[in-house]
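Kindly inspect this one:
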Amino acid sequence: MQPFIASLPELPRLLPPPVRSTFLLGPRGTGKSTIARQWFPDALSFDLRSGPLARILSAGPERLHAMLTAEPSDRWIVIDEIGRVPELLDVVHQSIDRDSRRRFLLTGSSARFVRRTGLNLLGGRAGKQIMPTFLAAELRDAFTIERAQRYGLIPVVWTSPDAETALTDYANVAVVDEVRAEVRVRQVAAFSRALEQLALSHARVLSPTAIAQLAEVPKSTVIDWIDVLESMLLISRVPVYSRRPSRRALAAQPKLFLADSGIAQALLSSEAARRAPDAVGAAREGIVYQHLTAWCDHTRDARLTTWRTSAGAEVDFVVEVGDELTAIEVKSGSVLRPSDRRSLLAFHDEYPDARLLLLCDAPLRERQGPIDVAPIDQWLREVIPGSPLP
């Protein structure tokens, strides 16, 4: 079986490089090390996945100072998986204070090490970027929405000759095993049940109470697990838009998204569950979420929310940049019914200056009243971080 695309180093990523010291955080297998080499091919690199190097620097973090002494101040320093030796953050902090021209790229698969060290992104001396999964624009002709819905967009899956096995292995190792090791989960069966319920909650309103009941554990335990998964960048909670006043009563609960729709698919218990219309629709919405988060992370003052009223009207996404709002609905099929437009029109009634966008399987872009209708495949290919939202 052939992989969906050629090997990862041959595929350039579209994210603009940072200009200041930066934490590059993201789940395993998303290509952090690869893009570090793409951005800074001449950087001095320290790969802490190497056991001997990690042991040397863990035993004496100050040795990093000596290693940097002979390096030019304008040479980037890349430290891969800094969370394995978090004591190095003190040395990095001191190095930046000594020479403001020194810049570091610090990669990690979890934000927990930053919290544990008590450092807040090096006291403001470093920025933060979240490494996204692949984008449709990066995959070019290899991308189809159907393939993305089933297998997600994690690079290690797309470059594998057996995507099905690679995705299953990723879900078991990078999600189940790593989280269990991170927090020393003792209730293994309950944790597995909770993960399946979280997968069923992908692109839906988060209800820790319901998950706790089905996993047969206290609600507080589920909340702790959710916090850990979020700190490891494996799930996110998208809040309800409330920046401007609304005449309608708004719901308060956030929506849950796993970091990748493929992970959600892999954590479901059967192929029948993966093919269920609700699961397919959630996977499609999740793919749009992955593109929007990547875009927002590289757009100044961008904020991603959802919108849902107590009466049941719901818009999948609201993108806010300054005073500009874009409301986005994600649908399947090419024939739109009046009910498909109802929530967008309700949002338009509240915020008449907002742009309304409906993504579906329509063959061509068209305007239906105040709503822009766009083919979802084409629109996703046009989402490029650092460029205007298509």
Q: What stands out?
A: Residues 179 and 228 are 8 Å apart (CA to CA). The longest strand covers residues 314-321. Residues 163-183 form the longest helix (21 residues).
